[in-house]
Amino acid sequence: MSEKEKNEALEEEELDLDDMLDFDDDDPLGATAVSKKSLVIFFLIDTSGSMRGKKMGELNTVMEELIPEIRKVGEADTDVKLAVLTFSTGIQWMYTEPINIEDFKWARLEAKGVTSMGAAFTELAERMSRNGFLNSPSLSFAPVIFLMTDGYPSDDYKAGLEALKANSWYKFGLKAALGIGNEANDEMLAEFTGSPDTVVHAYSGNQLAQMIKIVAVTASQIGSKSMTLSDEHGDELQEEDVYATKQKMLGQQIQDLVGTEGNDNEGFDTGW
Known about the structure:
By secondary structure, the protein is α/β, with parallel strands linked by helices. It has a single domain, classed as von Willebrand factor, type A domain (Rossmann fold, 3-Layer(aba) Sandwich). 41% of the residues lie in helices and 15% in strands. It is built from eight helices and seven strands. Strands 1, 2, 3, 4, 5, 6 and 7 form a seven-stranded mixed β-sheet that branches. Strand 6, helix 6 and strand 7 form a beta-alpha-beta unit. The longest helix is centred in the C-terminal third of the chain and has 22 residues. The protein is globular.
């Protein structure tokens, strides 16, 4: 083969690789071939009136303390970004796009209004796409999605949840939820995560701090792991199986850590 023919063959291989990396929302896991990995962590936070006072104050404090912990997550070749969506009478993003964890600054939240959780689900489904918040060419990990609320939705959350379930990134993402206080409905939260094992509950400020840190750090660690699985015959499993295994692992580790912390589930809002 001549030198010219070798160069033409190399160019064709490069084009083929570019085609492989040009994926869309219907195949979100097609980005695993890139060398620079990126992980977006979404926080969906209830800022309705029932969160007013100590609940919101303690949540703000915990989130400020959490950011340095998340900075330790991932390896040198992983870009971790945060996106925060709040919901009350309306919905609002803390920033207009996901922010790199090294540059992220927590903006303290205020509580008022009702609980438009369904609207938040619909908004997340729209933004969680290559045309929205997941437009990084280096994106390779499915996102982490962490929902926190102290009550039942005041709108049609099921319609919003159906919109999310049609989203490929949601399907493969790691999902967890935290119920705050007596009024939070864990069964509804399990609908969002797909499993009661990835739902935790806090009845006091101390538990709130523990649960947020346990869930957020554990989910981030698992979400940023590269993982290859094989079946009993040694054949490599599909990406769907890998992400299902990650979700199961998240539930197991959360429940183990919650038990270790000695969560005694008081039946009242201590200090709230």
